[in-house]
Amino acid sequence: MTRTDSVDVKRWRAKYALIERAAEADQDAKALFAEMDAERTARNDELREILADLVASGDLMAFKESLGHWARKDGPYVGFSAVGGPWVAALVRRSEDEHAEVIELLANALQTPASPQDAADKLHAVDAFLARSGSRGQRSPSPAHTAYVLSLFWSTDDGGEWPVMWENAPHMLQRLGWLERGLSHAERYVAFAALCAALRPDDPRYASRILWWFKEAQAFVGIAPKAIDVCVEAAELAAEYRPATGYASERHEERAADLARQLRGEADHLSDSLIERLSAETGLYLEAPTLALQQHAVDDSPYRADLYASWILVGGAGAPGFRLWVTPAGVGFGLHGGWEGEGDDQHREVGALLQGHLPRGISFLRVHDDGRAAAEGLIEPVGRDYPGGETFVGKWWKDGAALGRADFADDIAATARALTPLLRFISSSQRGGGDDPSVELTVMADLESEVEIFKTERPYPNERDAWHQEQRRVFSTALSREGLETFDLPTFKRIVSTRGYGDIGAQSVLISSINALDAAGIDELRLMVRELLWADGRDEERINSVLGTDDLPVQGFSESVVMKLFAIAHPEHWLPLFTLAGESGKIAMLARLGGPARWTEGKSRGRMHVETNALLRQVLDPLLADDPWGQAQLAYWLMRRSDKALMPDHDALGEAAKELLIDEAFLREIRSLLEEKKQVIFYGPPGTGKTYLAQRLALALQPDPAKRDIVQFHPSSSYEDFFEGFRPQIDHQGQMVYELRKGPLALLAEAAEADPLTPHIMIIDEINRANLPRVFGELLFLLEYRSHSVKTSYRPDEGFELPPNLYFIGTMNTADRSIALVDAALRRRFDFVPFMPHDGPMEGLLRRWLEAHDGPVWVADLVDRVNEDLRRALRGPHLQIGHSYFMRPGLDGDEATLRRIWDYNVYPFIEDQLYGREHELAQFRWENVRARYGQFDLAIPSGPHATPTS
To answer: What is the reported pTM?
Structure first.
């Protein structure tokens, strides 16, 4: 366990002094600690009284209720309820079977230990009980939380000096190399308490507080003052190492491994504490790989005797980047060429590129990798000429000049700024690899001009963008470290089920699973989300830990959900782009921006998300600085601009007019109506080509079929069918759940919103057959007010608007419903275009078609004359015969064909209109019509309406 009297602890005290000095200089932390201390005595006394009542009465339920009330009070223990509350509640549930044992266990365990061994015994006793009770299939409190709960009780006793071991303390101290791994829960707490006492003998509890601040703040406090001493000792042990025999003794090998863990722990702290500042100072997305324990990635290699923290461009551990290097001779910081490509060949190439371009005050640093490394300190400055070997350029601080200084972060930042152009230069020079994901993408000359077009034509930003930004601010509070201490479940469900800060689609399985959770399950979900977003380790590891397991508190926790949570909680790193594959995925976006097309082999999903996100940030952040939402919208917009190749170069409307045999001016008039009001209705008798013309016009205006859609209304059409609504589906467990499923309008509206520069067209056939106010609902308002948004029936937490580039073409058969009966509100929102066989653009269409197809032109005269009769008989133009009945190839004046068209299509329609008026109806039978208007006399075949000519 921790060596409280060793040379290590003396070194750690020097680092702890830096941490304590930084914490006491942090005004926010100082205010927080003062606020907590103002209430601490009162809260301590209350908790000791609650414990005394438990010992005296044995009333577990009263203990639980009193403890819950105490934990909810403001003050130093407000975070107890998140972990301690469920732990105590679960233990109280165990009392149903073992009431007396639980009371005795708690009454003993929560009393202040008399010695380290007594503390260990109490923790062991609770662990043993939990292990035994957990085997009975009942939910038990987590043993990992035991030390926190017990030590919190112990810390409130003014007679003792036991520090609180918060939940993540062991992991943090193990990562630093200050606490051994592989300890039991009891051993770990005893070692933690001993370490706090060694660091601050006069007040171990204060040391625990300072270490908590260090973990939460992740602040740069300076390089450990004794870091070089650690390197020197490690170098002495490395010097005795021989590949064939190893170290001189097992004890020396164990010591070398221990020192290497300490060096790696210090490197981890330096990496984590500086990465945000370096990313901000350079405008690059950097990541910090973990330092290896051995000097080389082979088995016959000594443990390391140096310390370096790296901040590299995305692309793997060998990518170029910045390096802070601590050796027995001093400290260097600068640009390292990485290990991509062919090793030494690459370094020679990079060294040659950099020579002659070094900024003032920057020199090459020679890196020794031979037997002299330990003795000579591994690296040394050599001037402005490339010395061969590894490429490392930067500044050098001899001996301990850089150690123990919090302001050394300023020196690092200034050097990084000076070297950033060179780092961009290196990465740009590596374009030749083709599939290398570390390719620098920021040198696309046309992007800046594209941004100005994006801002103007989209436009950006608009009201909708402001709403998304506000949603992220609200959501981020719930997903912050503090927010996840209590867990705002309603807000969390809004995050995963609404379009706020990016749409991830319906998440019905996830929402259904969340709704089925009990209190303990909700807490498990909270802890999982907290670990995902805020635990130590690399982003890709935490992403993979969720994506790679089915052992989650909920079902349906998809990849898009994970990425949306990261985008909300960490906007400084993550763009609101949630998918990898597909036409709008991040891989396709990289290809659109000139990045690598194939580089995913052998990489995890988490790694691919990290790399694609980082490469896109490198391109987009300089264009829209500190605006991840805008950068994502720009990326989507750039993807859609590539679709403009689908737009024809020729006159699409002119071609459509020729094909339709109508005047081109008519189509241009309709286009003008659409541009002005956004929606039109074609109305007229059946068979006048309304739907056909609507489809052909839509094709001319938008040739991409993905940007057009057609629906047909009927009396049962509903809002849920057309826009969106809940629909049943079977989940993975075979249970029926309800999913909010988008209808054709919602889907096309989203496509139009994502691609605002091209028209999207929806054709609504037979629009008057449905109950339109019921089908459109609140969307009727949006048809008229495109710049506004409304809260829809199934989206009460977010606004919805119809994009200005979404157009509607409706068709209306006036034989089914008179235009006079159309709802006045709908009439106001649509322009109505008549399709009448005897008037306007449709006049003479049948004749033109028959002439163009060598058909019997006299049929057009026949239809015109019959329509004239119908207008008189029915007192209006809305029940005429449409021309499309006779626009059939191969008509050729064959009376048999003409009669079939008349008897089975036209006459039933007329019969329906003149029902009960037999004398008038008789004149519209085929043989009578032919006799009056026909151009030839053939034998009359038999048919369903064959009667003597009147």
So the answer is: 0.61
